Amino acid sequence: MRISGLVIDGFKSFADRVKLPIESGTTGIVGPNGCGKSNLMEAIRWGMGEHRVAEFRGSGMEDVIFAGTQRRSERIICEVGIEHEDPARDDGRLLVRRRIERGEGSSYWFADRKARLSDVVLHYKDLGSGPTSAALVSQSQITRLVDKATPSDRRPLLEAAAGIAGLKPRRDAAAKSLRESLQNLHDNERDLERMRAEVERLTTEAEQARRRMEIDAHVRRAEATLLHVRHRTADDRLSAASAKHETAEREIGDAMVALAAGERTRLAAAGAVPPVRERRLAAESALTRATVHAEQIANDAERRRREREDLLRRVADVDADLAREADAEAEALGGLRGLAEERAVIVEAQADESAEIEEASERFEIAGETAEASGEEVERLVALQAQSDARRMEARRRVEEAGVRARAAAQRLLTVRDALTALLARAVELDPAAAEELAATRKAEAEAAAEALEGADAETERLREAEEEARTALAGAADVLARLRGEAEGVGLALAALGSDPDAVASRIDVDPGYEKALAGALGPDLAVGTDPASPAVWTADAVRGPGHPDGSKPLSERVRGVPQLAERLASVGVVATMAEVDDISARLRPGQRVVSADGYMRRWDGYRSTLGDDASARRLSLEARRRVLDVELQAAVRTSTAASQTLEGVRARTVHARAALDAARRLETAAKAALEAARRSALDAARLRGEVDARIDAARGEAARFEQEDVAGRAEHEEALRVLAGFPPAEILRADLEKARAVQQGARRTADEAKRLLDGLTAAQRGRRERGLAIVREVDALNRRIAAAKERCADLAVRRRTAEEALAQVDQGPAPAGAVEEAREAVEAAREVAASVQRELEEVERRNADAERLVRETAALVERLKEDRSGRIAEIATARQQLADALERVRERFEGRVDELAGIAGIEVGSALPSIGAAESRLSKLVQERDGLGAVNMLAAQQLQEAQTARGAVDKARAEVAQSVQKLEQEVAALDKEGRARMEKAFEEIDGRFRDLFVRLFRGGQAFLKLVDNPDPFAVGIEVYAAPPGKRMQMLSLYSGGEKSLIALGLIFASFLVKPGPICVLDEVDAAMDDANVERMCGLIEELAREGRTRFVVVTHKAMTMSRMDRLYGVTMAEQGVSRIAGIDLNKAVEFARIEEPRRA
After folding, report:
1. Secondary structure class of 113 (helix, strand, coil)
2. How many structural domains comprise the chain?
3. So where does ATP get bound (predicted)?
């Protein structure tokens, strides 16, 4: 299926729908820079499914849609279609389209059928092409392959030639599945470890539950002891508090009598205080009035003085302001006179300025024309001199280049002749037959080592599976054993909690499952009775024969075994299923008979009935039956676990030996492969070197002949260049004319500059005078406003001065009397002496009153203290009563109010000493702490343990399945790696051979070869390139010229391409760094490849030689800014047309 055309609509700069036919042979794409040529290659990549945004020089995939120009709006949809020749279709044509719409993403189509991106990518991979194909070559790819490339950067060429486009994704998918399976296996193992820890935890929790029940019993006895001690202590405290309260009440009565006498004394002393206080208040009022009168007289005199000083200061300020305003008015009048004089001068100067400016302007224009004419003359002479110098330099360069080429040709001729002699000697030395024989021997050794490794691997895998099975069996047996032991321990703890008696029939009887409640309901407390004759209550064998079981029921004796003494009692008991059947049969019971249901509902012949059986008895019977079953199961589980452990140890021992054998086989196989690889490389190197030497000999002979011709041609070219250089005239005449013209130009420029400065000065002076005239008008107006304002302020200041003078006269009219202040001071002193005398009398009276009050307070405090003590005593009595009530309430809560039974519950004998409350609380606290230290106790540990063991078995089974899946995936990955390595090695050998041939053809000699850079991952190998063009030694590829790099890269690309040709090859300006000779070689190679007909070539170029070698040309134009179009011409048809038309024109 061949690609026949490209259809573009709205892709980047191609705003309109265009079609580029891609026909057999070579198709050239030409056009100026920036016209959109590279967009054609990007359109091909995009249409083939390229999804990396960076490949399209954008920030998002929607950037490939035409973005619009100044004349065109942006496009909403972009579409690229690639046409294929498909003979299987009716129209012989298949169009693969890719379409993108803004905000909607990409869609793909095969003709009219919608497809996926993966379908498109796979389609082009099957054709040997695709968006990442090595056949789509750009300048950047040349750089990546040769200049700064690593061996891994060249791996895509090897992958394309090996055809592993589909193999590598399969291997990556298998490797990903393997990693996921390994992770799942790790998770399963982690879950198993967690479940093992959980089983251990549940076992510990069961032990904690047993310990918890023991501690609960001790806590109950400790609580009974504490409550008994608290009850006795509270009763004693209540008696003592009551006696103390009676004594205190008598003391309170005596204190109340003393308080009444003191209160009478206090009242008499308090009655003498008010008259003295009234006299003191009158004396203080007189003193205050005298003081206030004296202060008023002094303040009035001070106020008059300060007011007079303030008025004098205000008059002085007004006088200063009047003087300042008068000065401002005089200054403004002077400014008006100066502005009038300046305005007259400006008017006089403006009379002659127009004529001066017009004259200066004319002189400037004349000088400018003169300078421009001289400048044109200088430019003409400079261009003439530059042209002459360039032609002379070109002639000299040709002379030098011709001489260099002639010398180089002679030197290369000598070098080639020396190299040819050395190569002939080297060809005699090389013999690849011995290396091939050694490689065959190493191959046989490697095959034998591989067979031994497969056998050891198979044996190891078999033993691993056996070990896994044995481990699974051992884990299952251990889980069963742990579950049974945990359940047995739980049953034992439960029986211990129920307090079973070993002699009781309940501990020895055997009951069928489901009949425990029926037996408990039938016998009730009699189950706790044993068969020991020494006991007060005992079951004996001398029972009277009973009436048998009731009609309509089954005898309970059929479901119970183990105690023969109960035979007659059980034979008289009938068992039915439901309570209704019990009630129905009860009417027909004979003396001694009983009937009971399966859930414990019992009726007796004498009318007695019980709704429920004794639950504890039923649980005890059920637990005893389960314990006997567990004993048998535990013995079997121990035997099974021991056998599984022995089997696992045996398999492990054999596995260790098998793994040691496997490691030895692997080392042997690795060494054999390394020896085989070394032998193969030696054979390949020998054959390659012999081929290289032969090719280099042929190339050297051709080069020797070519260099002889170049030597002759170089000497002739050098002589011709010398003759042309001698024919040039001397350059001194042109230099002299140029200097004269430059002198004339400089004089004209100076004259023009002077005229320009004069004109600018006159224009600036005229503009300044106009601006100053306008400023004078503004300043005159401002000065007039200042004069008017100064006059207004002077009038206002005169009014303010008169007002201040009038106020000053009023102040001076009323001075204060001279002796009024002294008289007021004497009156104050007299009032102060009277007030002091009254104050001393008041202090004496108040002291006597304070003594009486203190005595009353002390007596009242004593009474109050006694009353407060009474409250404390009453509170103490209440506290004792409350403590006694709390103790009784606690007894009711914990022991149902049985106060008299506390000593018995606590184990305290009558008359023995009681512990203290602190000691009892400490004992209880320690027991509670010990119980709390156990934490949350899981009473369902046995059930949860069984569930955990079941879940662990399921996870263990899943782990085995995942391990099997991992083994299969490892085998699949190894097989894919083996196939990939074989394909890569085969493809490398073919690429290396073709690259050697293409290098010699492109460079007309030299030597080059490839080296495979190995990697444990066959899909991660790389290619190292070694090349030496003719006459050069091996060196880093980055040190070669741009053209040599391009040819080496093209040789490498075409070598890969020839191994597995694709339907299309696009070369985007790969000839940019090549000279004409290299371009000629590249074009010859492209034409040769195109003639084979398997590949169609599209070449984007700027080189005229490349264009001339194309079968057809298409030009990309941008007549409309930002919009690309395509125009084409078939050169073969054009040549044919010219051949037909030439005779007609002749």
Report:
1. strand
2. 1
3. 32-39
34 has binding-site annotation: yes
Strand partners, 1113: 28, 1129
- For every residue of 702-748, DSSP letters joined together read HHHHHHHHHHHHHHHHHHHHHHHHHTSPPSHHHHHHHHHHHHHHHHH
Question: Sorting pLDDT into bands at 50, 70 and 90, what band is 650?
Answer: confident
DSSP 30-93: E--TTSSHHHHHHHHHHHTT---GGGGTSSSGGGGB----SSSPPPSEEEEEEEEE-TTSTTSE
Q: Is 39 annotated as a binding residue?
A: yes
d(CA 602, CA 609): 5
pLDDT tens digits for range 700-744: 666 666 667 766 776 777 677 677 666 655 666 667 776 777 777
Known binding residue 794? Answer is no
Cα 958 to chain center, whole Å? 33
Q: Give the three-class secondary structure for 129.
A: coil
For 1068-1090, what is each residue's pLDDT tens digit? 888 888 888 888 888 888 888 88
CB 492 within 8 A of CB 207: no
User: Is 33 part of any known ligand binding site?
Assistant: yes
3-state secondary structure of 1036: coil
| C-beta neighbour count of 343 within 10 angstroms | 15
Cα(57)–Cα(46) distance, integer angstroms: 12
Q: How far apart are CA 606 and CA 1108, in angstroms?
A: 131
User: Is 372 part of a structural domain of the chain?
Assistant: yes
Q: What is the mean pLDDT of the chain?
A: 76
pLDDT for 1100: 92
Is the CB of residue 569 less than 8 Å from the CB of residue 592? no
How far is the C-alpha of 171 from the C-alpha of 969, rounded, in Å?
A: 10
Closest CA to 629 of 484, 476, 480: 484
Give the 3-state secondary structure percentages of the chain, helix then strand then coil, rounded to 5: 70, 10, 20
Q: Is residue 610 part of a domain?
A: no
Is 35 annotated in some ligand binding site? yes
How far is C-alpha 628 from the chain's CA centre? 61
pTM of the shown model: 0.38
701 domain-assigned = no
Q: In what order do the strands lie in the sheet with 93-101?
A: 18-21, 2-9, 77-85, 93-101, 105-110, 113-115
What is the b/e burial string over 494-506, where b = at least 16 CB atoms within 10 angstroms of the residue's CB?
Answer: bbebeebeeebbb
900-937 confidence digits (pLDDT tens): 666 776 677 766 777 777 787 787 788 777 777 766 66
Q: Which of 1054, 1062, 1119, 1116 is nearest to 1087 (CA)?
A: 1054
Percent of residues, the chain, with pLDDT higher than 90: 4
The pLDDT of residue 465 is 77
Closest CA to 1088 of 1114, 1065, 1115: 1065
- Cα separation, 24 vs 15, whole angstroms: 27
In a 3-state reduction of DSSP, which class is residue 575? strand
Positive or negative torsion for Cα 643, 645, 646, 652: positive
1065 carries a ligand binding annotation: no
pLDDT value, residue 1136: 62
Range of the domain at 371: 355-427+728-753
- Asked if residue 749 belongs to a domain, the reply is yes
| Tokens 């200041």 -> residue | 797
DSSP state at residue 146: I
E strand or H helix that includes residue 668:
helix 615-726
36 is annotated as contributing to ligand binding = yes
Supply the pLDDT for residue 621: 66
